[in-house]
Amino acid sequence: MKIPTLLIAAALTTGLLSMPARAGDINLAWDPTPGATAYHVYFGTTPGVYSGSITTSGASATISGLQDCTSHFVAVKAVNGAGESVQYSNEISGWPRPAVTSSGSLKVMQGKQAVLDVVGANFQPGATVELGDSHILLGSVSVLSCTHLQVLATVEPTAPNVRPAEVGTKDVTIVNPDYVYGLQAQGFEVVINPARFDINRSDSATTNRIDGKDTIYLSRAFAASEPSPAYDPDYDFDGNGWIDGTDLNYIAINLGRCWSSSSGAWSSSACPSSLQ
Amino acid sequence: MTSHTGARMKMGALLALVALVLAPGCGGGGEENATGGSPGTLAAVFVADQFSPTANTVSMSQGSRSGDTVIVKINLTDTTSVFGVAFDVAFDETKATYMGFTKGSALESGGNTPNYTVDGSNQAGRVIVGVSRAGSTTTSVSGTKIVISLTFRVKEVGTYPIAFQNAVVTDGQTVPQPLPGIGWYAGALQGS
Known about the structure:
The complex is a heterodimer.
Chain A: E1 6-8, E2 26-30, E3 38-44, E4 52-56, E5 60-63, E6 72-80, E7 83-84, E8 92-94, E9 99-102, E10 106-109, E11 113-121, E12 128-130, E13 136-138, E14 142-145, E15 148-155, E16 168-175, E17 181-191, H1 212-220, H2 245-252, E18 258-260, E19 265-267
Parallel strand pairs in A: 10-17
Antiparallel strand pairs in A: 1-2, 2-5, 3-4, 3-6, 6-7, 6-8, 9-11, 11-15, 12-16, 13-15, 14-15, 16-17, 18-19
Helix pairs in contact in A: 1-2
Chain B: E1 2-4, H1 11-22, E2 44-48, E3 57-66, E4 69-82, E5 84-90, E6 96-103, E7 115-119, E8 126-132, E9 139-154, E10 158-170, E11 183-185, E12 187-191
Parallel strand pairs in B: 3-11
Antiparallel strand pairs in B: 1-7, 2-12, 3-4, 4-9, 5-8, 5-10, 6-9, 7-8, 10-12
């Protein structure tokens, strides 16, 4: 009988991408063997020495309950009515899938930095972190242990005329060097920076106050989207790539209010008495 | 607080704005006519500082009135290259109450649907107004046209001045700039 050929070590296939990350899992797939009615999947923690096996009828399998942060070695034999193939397939090895149990549900305001502290399992040296927003800049990842990593996250805009990160929650995805990944859904949140709402900076009399002039400025760029030249990232408060009614509403709801640096918010009481 | 817009936007944003327009108890925002004044003997009027506005002026004048409620029209007269108008209207909140606004026509030429952003709730005794055209084109106002109308209810007998503050009429540059030489004329609410 033909020896099955493994395709991918600890493979991620399209059908498995949406599965919740679970520590202790290895997913793999191989080329089907003509005439095979089943496959025996052997695994162990020493090359060529297999301490366990599972049987599957298809050309893929998930091995569960494996010890985390440990290399596991896997090979497959094809099975039919005549028995099991004599030889193993090629052997593959890998860690179980990385899993995130906590990222601190970190909330970071636009324009700020924070250290993302990720706790989980099976983080390998060289692992990377992805948040799915190119306007959140991530520093180099420090894999402190196989269960703990840190990365510095910088949430744009950190300067004028820089496209902001989009407000909302992001999935925290850890990708090991072998491209096996795990994620925590909505483990990171970008919070809007209200200090950005005062877009009229040319009039010193009303700097740090939101009024009708700010609405005129925003209206001048209304309905512009990136990459239109009319798109001004300073007016895109929520970072969705559009200057639209949502952005105008952030101004509208704070009309007449002044910036309180002590509370980091817009309030009527922060205005000078002449504007109250 | 109320915000109107006629420019293109995503549906989510549009729904949010509609919700704001329809929201009750939103600090006096929304469009409203000077009808339904409180029954009683108090009669409200508005006395303008400038009855014959000249070119390049923004002036208040009386609109319709009913009982203790009166509409104050904010007019723009013979002004070119207008993109937006912004101002505060300051009044004595112990003597009058801001009830709402009605959109005008001064900035609507060429089929434009301006953004109206108005709040009368964040600060007592102050209505903050921003009206601007959608897109980038400006308009030239010929004669006297209404930018926006504000409705007030007068609480007591007496004369109570209202005033423009932080007022500007802007052009349509990428960063809109104030048009020079604009005159601003307000007036007073009266209850009798």
